[in-house]
Amino acid sequence: MVIIGIYTWAFQPLPQLIRINRELKGLREEQAQLKEENLDLKESKEELFQNKYIEDIARKEYGMIKQDEEAFLVITPKEKKNPPPPDKKEEEKKKETKGWWEKILGW
């Protein structure tokens, strides 16, 4: 009886310890990922406030220029698109759909 009591007292928390160790390992991995993401975000934040980055966005997205610069707008002529040639099948269908009076009179 004493042996069973010692066994129960010593080994009963073992499954709990295994589960807690697994959770701890998962949390440490998550912490490492979050630290890496945090560093990336800090770098991005620093880039956002650099003058060159702001200037690039102002030029590309808003078409802004510096003082004493000249802007040029290049306009290309639109290509004329010729309508496609009439389909022979469509013409034949139109002929077939004529009424009997149109066929007789040749309209």
Question: What does this protein look like?
Answer:
- With 107 residues, the protein is mainly α.
- It has one domain (2-77).
- 67% of the residues lie in helices and 0% in strands.
- It has five helices and no strands.
- It has helices at residues 2-11, 14-48, 51-62, 88-96, 100-105.
- The longest helix is centred in the N-terminal third of the chain and has 35 residues, at 14-48.
- It is flat and about 120 Å long.
Strand-helix topology:
Elements lengths: L1 H10 L2 H35 L2 H12 L25 H9 L3 H6 L2
Summarize the structure.
This protein has 107 residues and is an all-alpha fold.
User: Which runs of at least 5 residues are low in confidence (pLDDT < 50)?
Assistant: none
User: Approximately how much helix is present in the residues?
Assistant: 55-70%
* Total number of helices: 5
Order of helices and strands: HHHHH
What is the SS-derived class? Answer: mainly alpha
Task: Indicate the overall shape.
Answer: flat
Q: Radius of gyration over alpha carbons?
A: 40 Å
What is the typical, i.e. mean, pLDDT? Answer: 79
Q: How big a fraction of the residues is strand?
A: under 5%
The tally of domains stands at: 1
Key structural traits:
107 residues
